[in-house]
Request: fold
Amino acid sequence: MNSNKQVPIFAGLILLLAFITASILLIPVQAAPAPQLTSFPTPTPGSDGRIVYIVQEGDTLWRIAAVAGLQVPDLRDLNNLGPEEIVYPGQQLFLGLGGPAEEEPTSPPLQTAVPEEPTPAPQPGWGTLCVLLFNDENGDSMRQEEEVSLTGGAINISNREGSVSITEDTPAHNPDPLEDDHFCTEELEEGEYNVSVAIPEGYNPTTVLNAGITLEPGDTTYLNFGAQASSDVQEENAPLGEEAGRSPILALLGITMLAAGVGLGVYSIWFRR
Reply:
């Protein structure tokens, strides 16, 4: 009798365990959360232009190099890291150079727009450019007061836009002490200019032969270029006055010595008699 009552109870327990087991199997299994890497803060240049990154928890050299657009060997070289060294949180890594970090400009308060009168376009200004090719007799590249203009050369003045191109022969020396030997262009429009000279044949340059200048309104700019005669030209142009002055003296001295010799000879013969 008692055994017959225990059968339904035992069967009920088995059904309850089966139900609980099935319920557990039907519950979806949730995977363990994957480890989360810390966010990669955007490195910005400092006031000295250096880009420095602070290593975060979970960072690796590969991750830092990938985000910064570098190769791992380059990142190691920038920070003198050996092939086996690893990074640690809080470590400072140098990523390169860039401009200083720019601060976000604050928006000014809104103001009522006031129509303005149109500003007239500025008119170009004018200046003066004076160029001299001088005979650099001592070859020191510096013009002395006695070193005058060298004729037979050429001067060229042009601007970058190509709207100005001036070519002139180098002027001859003006003996008037109140006048200047420079070739001057007046009322030359302001801007960037290139000035060059060509020297006469038989001369060697003692300075550069071209120069770039910026002509400002109202300016008067002087440029000096030097050239020295070659040895052949110097010999051709050597003054003959000194040698010509010495020649008659030497001739007279020779004649005098010859006459003295003749006189001594005659005197010696006469004395022997």
The first strand starts at residue 50 and ends at 54.
